[in-house]
Structure formats: structure tokens, C-alpha cells
């Protein structure tokens, strides 16, 4: 599909303080300087902004803003992965692994259907 | 890097009800059947679980769980994008566009540095 | 228990721009000047910070920080309620109403137990 | 204002497993049986649902749903406080303490104004 994630991950690596990243010049280096909580807080923030942009898109049709917020969310997950010395490839591998386990979606669905039947029976 | 995202997006498309997706058999079709809020709620949930897994990883070193939660978060953003007839490529294009705008990170950093100086001056 | 919530809600009302709230002098007036999304974004942020403080409290025993983050979260829900011309009393009334509906917790629990049995059966 | 929070906190205490709370009969006892992460996940979930209900309220005027989601959020923060052997009174005391520190809002506002000026200067 693209090696944008790979290139971004490499760029982010160069912003680590140990790699010479400069918090005065780089937003990413600045996040690394602040540490775990500042980065994780951004995950919560960007997830909330993505949800709000999606609600707005239903009203005003502005899907570009939703794409932008989703990009912000993915970007900050890349910074988080780097902070823990992980890579986007690991996440893609995990997604591919699940995709290959063909039974898993059906199993999840079956569980979900049973759950809904349980909810209906409990409500009655 | 990989076309996992592309393949996943195509799989998700086939689960739309209009494409014959069956909520009895597919977890994804089930999310589509429930609609926007059920999907967006998952974004908030998975973001929270990602943050918790990151906090845990600092204590117990279990980064595999963090990768798994991040995969869950990305997966549900793919479902959200499909729900709004958007694609992961659009998000990657937006990320690439920003990467190309070389000044943007420095500008963001400069703003951030000014902000911190403002905070220090306000605290004094 | 306390009328702290009531007094805070009254203070917050006075910060509305229509009541003479001044964004140059008041953080709350500033949130009102920014509008819905700025206030809602704070709900997402403070919820994430509460979750992180709780994870930290298990490691370092610092429950004072958790109380502080929970106070931040409640405070910003009060600002949100005011933004929608609602009051904390309405939320307390809703909580009291549920408390009075004695069957509701048992029903929720029964549903939950059935759901777990469904999950176990689906996993097997 | 009300002792609803106090009464709810007392009810929640009785649902702790050590107090005889029964996960088969009580939703709250069930959350306690699942532990920290299940409770914290609910904070993230209910915060997201509150944000979505607020966005909806601007479109359809359904503020009752927003009050309901806010009640859910507060309720689950009470369960979290109990899980950490904390009380809502501690949160209210913290809010009252801040209210008494009259300078704090003005300081926050001054910091915020400086930050916005910094942002404008960085954008220019």
C-alpha cells in the first residue's frame, strides 16, 4: 500500500534525544523529552477529536477533517510505538496474523450474537 | 512497508451489509449493523486500552500486549473509515503530505516552546 | 454530602460571556469562548489522565494525584453541563432515580452473567 | 446540594467482595471482581459516550441523554474511587480547596492567554 508509515517511523526515530533530536526545533523531540504520559495523553486527546470529527462529518459532510484527525491519531500512535522501541511493522504483522486466523472473526461474531440474545433475554 | 492495511480495508468493505455482510457471522458486519456510535465508542475504548497497556508495559515489560492493543485501535479506525466511505490510503496521503511540508514540525515546535515559556512566566 | 458542586456550578455560570465572564481573566470564560469542542476535548483528556493516575497509583501508591485528576474530570463535566444549560443537580437526580429503581442493578448483573456464559461457550 | 453521592458511595462499598458483594447479583460487584482495568476501561467508554451525547444534543436537543451519560460517567468514577479506597468527599474537598485558592483561575487564564499569543505569533 505505501511505505509512509515506515518513513514516518524512521523520521520519528531521528527525533529521539539519544539520536540528537532537539526539543527546541522538533515537536516530536519535545514529546520524547516530556515522556510517556505526555505521549499517552495525546492518544486520548486525538481519539476524542477523531470521535468528534466523525460526529461532525455526519452533520456537515466534512470528511477531510475526519481524515485529518485520524492522521493525528495514527501519528501519535507511531510516536508511542517509538517511545517503547516498537515499530508500526509489528502492529501490521499482528493485524496480518489475525487476518490469517480465518476463524477468529466468525468466533467473535458468534460470541457477540450470543451476547445479544443474552441481553434480550435479560431485558424480558 | 506492507499492504496489510489495504487488504484489511478490502476485507472490511465486504462486510458492509450492502455487500452481503452478515451480522450473524461477522463481527465487522455486526458493527456496521449497529452504526456510527457503536463504532466510535470502540475508538474511545481501544484508545483507553492502549494507554493502559502502555502503562503496564513500563511495569511488566509486556510490549506484546501493547502491540495487540495498538492493532485493535488501528483496526477499529479502519472500520470507522469504511463506515464513512474513506480509505486508509487517504490517511496515509495526509500523513505523507504533512511529512513533505518540512516547515510544519519546526513551526509546531516553535509554538510549543513559546507555550512552555509562557507557562513558566505565568507560574512565576 | 456537600454543596461544593452547587457552589462551583454557580461560579461557573458567572463566567459565561453573557454574564460578564472575561476570557482574559478566567480560564472557565476562556473555555466558554472557545465553545463545545474545546470543552468536550477536555472531557476526553481528563478521563485519560484519570486512567493514567489510577494505573500509577497501583505502582506508587499516590492516590492524592488520582483524587486530583478525578477532581479535574468532574470540574470539566460541570463546565460542560453549564455549556448546555444543565446543572449537576440534574445528574444527581438521575443517579438518585436509578438508585431507587432497585431492580436495575440486579437486571444489569443478570445480563452480564449471561453475557459471560455466552463468551465462555463461544470460546469453547 | 445533595447526599446522593454519599449514599451511592455507601451502596458501592457494600458491593465489594469482602463486604459480601455477589457478582452473580450485582453489576458493581461484578466490576470489582474483574478488577482495575475493567473499571478504568469504563471511565474511557463513558467519557466517549458523554462526548457523543453532547455532540448529538447540539443537533437534536436531547439533553436528557447527555445528563444520562454524565450520570454514567460519574457513577463509574465512584466505583473507581471505591476500588482505590477513596471517597467522593475527597474529590469534593479537593474541588473546594481549589475554589478557595482565588488566584488559581486567574493564573490559569493568564497562562492560557500567553499560550494563545504564542500560538498566533508562531503561526504568523
Please name the defining characteristics of this protein.
homotetramer; 124 residues; mainly alpha; 6 helices; 80% helix; globular
Molecular structure report:
The structure is a homotetramer of 124-residue chains. By secondary structure, chain A is mainly α. Chain A is 80% helix and 0% strand. Chain A contains six helices and no strands. In chain A, helix 3 packs antiparallel against helix 4 (63-83). The termini of chain A are far apart. The mean pLDDT of chain A is 88. Chains in contact: A-B, A-C, A-D, B-C, B-D, C-D.
Uncertain stretches of chain A: none
Distance between the termini of chain A: 48 Å
Helix content of chain A: over 70%
- Greatest interface by residues involved: A-B, 63 and 62 residues
| Order of helix and strand elements from N to C terminus of chain A | HHHHHH
Number of extended strands of chain A:
0
Tally of separate helices of chain A: 6
Amino acid at each position: 500500500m505505501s511505505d509512509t508509515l515506515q518513513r514516518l517511523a524512521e523520521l520519528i526515530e531521528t527525533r529521539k534525544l539519544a539520536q540528537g533530536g532537539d526539543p527546541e526545533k522538533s515537536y516530536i523531540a519535545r514529546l520524547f523529552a516530556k515522556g510517556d504520559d505526555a505521549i499517552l495523553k495525546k492518544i486520548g486527546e486525538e481519539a476524542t477529536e477523531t470521535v468528534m470529527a466523525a460526529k461532525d462529518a455526519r452533520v456537515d459532510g466534512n470528511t477531510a477533517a475526519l481524515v485529518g484527525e485520524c492522521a493525528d491519531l495514527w501519528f501519535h500512535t507511531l510516536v508511542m510505538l517509538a517511545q517503547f522501541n516498537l515499530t508500526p511493522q509489528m502492529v501490521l504483522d499482528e493485524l496480518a496474523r489475525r487476518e490469517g486466523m480465518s476463524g477468529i472473526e466468525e468466533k467473535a461474531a458468534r460470541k457477540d450474537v450470543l451476547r445479544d440474545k443474552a441481553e434480550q433475554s435479560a431485558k424480558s
